[in-house]
Amino acid sequence: MKRYLVVEESVCPECEGDGVVLDPCWREYLELGDPHRDPDGFAREECGLEEMPPEEIECPTCGGTGVIRREVPLEEALAALEGEVRHG
């Protein structure tokens, strides 16, 4: 029995298609909201790093592509397309 698959692509929900996200250490630093605190001091004390990393990193969810791809059965894809046509 043969099974047909198609590739479904959607915008990555984590990075919203940008391919990058805010580094976790930077996120924590910015959430504290203390503009007078030294970023590198924060990185050493709170993140265990020598200095602050780059502000943006490659999105771990999509691997930096901004797109999520998954194989779906042809029948599922056709049903989804049919629903889109009916509901505009």
Give the SSE map.
Elements: E1 5-11, E2 20-22, H1 24-32, H2 39-47, E3 56-58, E4 67-73, H3 74-87
Antiparallel strand pairs: 1-4, 2-3
Helix content: 25-40%
Instruction: Note the main sheet.
Output: 2 strands, antiparallel
Q: Can you give the mean pLDDT?
A: 92
Total helical segments: 3
Sum up the structure in keywords:
4 strands; elongated; alpha+beta; 88 residues; two-stranded antiparallel sheet
Folded structure, characterized:
There is one protein chain. This protein is of the alpha+beta class. It folds into 2 domains: about 1-20 and about 60-88, no CATH class; about 25-55, no CATH class. The protein is about 35% helix and about 25% strand. It contains 3 helices and 4 strands; from the N terminus they run ββααββα. The chain has helices at about 25-30, 40-45, 75-85; strands at about 5-10, 20, 55-60, 65-75. It has a two-stranded antiparallel sheet with strand order 1-4. The chain has a two-stranded antiparallel sheet with strand order 2-3. The model has no long low-confidence stretch (mean pLDDT about 90).
